[in-house]
Design a protein that fits this description.
flat, DNA-binding, 10 helices, Tetracycline Repressor, domain 2, mainly alpha, about 0% strand, homodimer
DNA sequence: CCCCCGCGTTATCGTCGATAACACGGGGGT
DNA sequence: ACCCCCGTGTTATCGACGATAACGCGGGGG
């Protein structure tokens, strides 16, 4: 990317760019600020429900959806390249912390809101960046929901393993057998039997689907592209 | 960073750089490859214990420590800027997945090893990057441990199956699934499928501990690959 | 002994980031 | 009405950078 190219695209000459933004880094910084403004605008416009946990979940999903909808802008936003953009990032952290404060006021938080906010934000950016920059390694966007619920379960108070133990044990049994299905070929299973057996194993639901939040909620059209 | 500067620092002229690396991106790519080699070398040299969970925890901590020790190299490594480096990243994921496979073979994993590996890797890079690039927002390194345990708690099977360190997680998984095969009919299995599925389950022998690779073999196998 | 090719050099081109100097044009004080 | 003045945009230019062409040297094989 060259300043000449963006000036030609904007229909002006170079000096106006340097008058407006100082230098090239200034232009990049202004762009990043603009992306942060869009992000924060979406965050501030999010309607709040009476259940802070629901809002926090929606906040995570909207974060991931924003990243997937604007991958280049998002990588710029969280990229460490340019001069500091701490203000917008701190504001995002503050918005998240407000929801966490509400959760803490209800006695449902196990850790300090600041700590919970840092856990959520860092994990969320990590998942989003991975989904964007390594789609070959992370082909499934449901990863976002999995990590989200993992972090939320860790910061929430209450029973350590609230999920039903029956479905939990079943899921563990499925993964155990899936891990060892290779050792079962060619004895006692033929290759075809192992293939079908593995296929059936993946069809076993993990637990009662009504209990846990649906991961099928589409992340796509949560933001305006 | 200019090619002239690195050539002067190396005591050579520009054309040797272009002969060796093609162009500037080639030099950057070679640097990134070198960093990945260091990372993978550390990962491969890590001694494996008899407890895969301990190894996975140590792997997370060494990942974070590597990032904190070489922040610039790490940001280069995970930065999406240059041409693809999928091979080293895939190898890192494979190394992690080997530990997770061992965990799954012991019946202690709730999700598929691939899924668990992606959850761990994405969250770990997210935490490491946050600690590096936003030290003002993430002043405490213990964030890494918190997120680590959150992810691990989410992928680990519940406190069920406390015994069976010796090896019969497979048999336990078989009995678990046998007990719940009735709940799987008529969905997602037809009666005939459930019948065959149950029959196959009974054909699975108890795991033979000698069949599993020993940690020493594991290590040798890794270093040769 | 000479040839040849891997390796390094000097010299140069086009482009880029950044700035100096200048040109236009409309609003406010007298 | 006049002129001053500054905000805005232009042309011209500089130094540095990425990249390449052309050349030179030196040691191993026919």
């Amino acid at each position: 990317m060259s300043t000449r190219a963006v000036c030609e695209a904007a229909g002006v000459q170079q000096p106006v760019l340097y008058r407006l933004f100082g230098d090239k880094d200034g232009l990049l910084a202004a762009t990043v600020d603009h992306v942060w403004d869009q992000y924060l605008g979406m965050k501030r416009a999010a309607a709040k429900s009476e259940d802070p946990l629901r809002d926090i979940r929606a906040g995570w999903d909207s974060h991931t959806a924003f990243a997937l909808a604007h991958p280049h802008a998002y990588t710029l936003m969280v990229s460490p390249g340019l001069r500091a953009v701490p203000e917008a990032a701190a504001e995002a952290m503050r918005i998240l912390r407000e929801d966490l404060d509400r959760l803490a006021a209800q006695g449902r938080l196990r850790v300090a809101p600041e700590t919970a906010a840092r856990m959520i934000m860092s994990a969320n950016t990590g998942v989003s960046l991975s989904l964007i920059t390594r789609p070959g390694l992370y082909p499934d966007t449901s990863l976002s929901t999995l990590v989200r619920d993992a972090i939320h379960a860790a910061i929430l108070a209450g029973p350590a393993t609230p999920a039903d133990p029956a479905g939990d044990a079943r899921a563990a049994a499925v993964t155990t057998l899936l891990a060892s299905v290779g050792d079962l070929t060619p004895e006692p299973f033929t290759a075809a039997e192992s293939a079908l057996f593995g296929e059936w194993l993946t069809r076993i639901p993990a637990a009662d689907p009504a209990e846990r939040p649906s991961p099928a909620e589409d992340l796509k059209d949560r933001t305006t592209s």
